[in-house]
Amino acid sequence: MLFNSVSFLLFFPAVLMVNFLLPHKMRWVWLLAASYYFYMCWNPVYALLMLTSTAITYASGLLISRVRSRAKLWVALSFISNLGILFFFKYYSFAAESLMAALGRFGVTWQAPAFDVLLPVGISFYTFQALSYTMDVYRGQVEAEKNFLRYALFVSFFPQLVAGPIERSSHLLSQLKEKRPFDPDRFKSGALMMLWGYFQKMIIADRAALVADMIYGYHAVYSGWVLILATLLFAVQIYCDFGGYSAIAIGAARILGIDLMQNFRQPYFARSVSEFWRRWHISLSTWFRDYLYIPLGGNRKGLVRKYLNLMITFVLSGLWHGANWTYVMWGALNGAFQIIGDGKNRLLKKWNRRETFSLVLFQRLCTFGLICLTWVFFRAQSIADAFDILRSMFSVNNAWIFTDGTLLSFGLSTLEWVMLALSIGILWAVDIAHEHGVSLGAKLSEQHIAFRWLAYVGVIVFILLFGVYGVGFDAGQFIYFQF
């Protein structure tokens, strides 16, 4: 069930109404049932897989708390079993094909067993969320949850189930036990957050996707500014697609009385690649920091070890995103750029630089350019395609495409190009406001009720009139659902 579907627009109000009509002690049971129904709308069998992961991590938590002498064993078994399931469904075919190709280079022919399985929606997200619980219990940061059904809700809570944010048990599990009456202020702020998410997804991301998909799908026939335009639009698309999903998830949870963690914080305003990763997909980057980078030694064991840990973390982060060498390359590039940036900072640490506007702008443009370079590998179908795109991107200066009508051959009319440019301008303005600590939602809530409702209705009408849906609507599935 997609957030941008009619089914969800019927499902969520029904869940919300019943939730606040029920007594407090029954609400979490209702949310658990709704969450499993939400997930089973894709494929009922997927729910059995999620239930298996839930049962394993629930049992490991109890065993860790009761038999501390064997705590490491239970942690290991929990990780091995859950990551084994993830490997089979997400990485087996990739690993088998890579191994067969490697053996073939040495003249060895081997045919790996083939399994016809579909990648369960959101498996990487709920697996990591469940495993973080195991580690939190082992570290003593939370007590083992004794109520299996309440723990199952923690793993399956539908707003953030299939694409995050990846929540921590210390933050979400405790909230599921608290009594939270209906709050009109939370409803208003949550609904406004959801509207902003729909604007990002349906107005910007899905429209930018039409151009990016067309050009990347036939990249061999394009060059120069066409490929640069497609890459820039993909950078906008993936930000608004995933950021839009996160906004809808956070808003929906807020209406239900649950606070989810912030997942994006104006990432394209970052002044370095390392800062970008403190702003982009925050729940995942902090997960890898806390459960992989720091356990590996972090920056506590010397500079070489720090850089090695950083590369391991980002290569595995890339692999987490997908079973393709393009994602591994994407992660490696992000790690390499951070190492280079850290080395540069060490060389220049004695140079007192004035924080001028021009310097900040230069740093942000350079960082955005490097991130767009990595997006080429993220979007391309193969590493060879990515290098072909990069070569073609800088092979010719055909800037005339912006004035000779070429843009109209990429699937958008003149009006749609204007709407896309206007919407990106709105996105930029909102991000600038948030970057300076200005909450537009709070500012709006201070206005007269007539103005507020005019703004709400105006956004809804704008989305209905100019959102991308209808024929080919399935193409508007959220990008991160595939992870």
Number of helical segments? 18
Low-confidence stretches: 470-475
Shape annotation: globular
SSE series: HHHHHHHHHHHHHHHHHH
Question: Could you explain how this protein is built, in words?
Answer:
The protein is an all-alpha fold. It is built from 18 helices and no strands. It has helices spanning 6-21, 24-40, 44-66, 71-104, 123-139, 148-156, 169-175, 184-217, 225-255, 273-279, 282-296, 303-321, 325-348, 357-379, 383-393, 414-435, 440-445, 449-466. The longest helix is centred in the N-terminal third of the chain and has 34 residues, at 71-104.
Question: What layout of secondary structure does this protein have?
Answer:
Elements: H1 6-21, H2 24-40, H3 44-66, H4 71-104, H5 123-139, H6 148-156, H7 169-175, H8 184-217, H9 225-255, H10 273-279, H11 282-296, H12 303-321, H13 325-348, H14 357-379, H15 383-393, H16 414-435, H17 440-445, H18 449-466
Helix pairs in contact: 1-2, 2-3, 2-6, 3-4, 3-5, 3-6, 4-5, 8-9, 8-16, 8-18, 9-14, 9-15, 11-12, 12-13, 13-14, 14-15
What is this entry, summarized?
With 483 residues, this protein is mainly α.
Can you give keywords for this protein?
483 residues
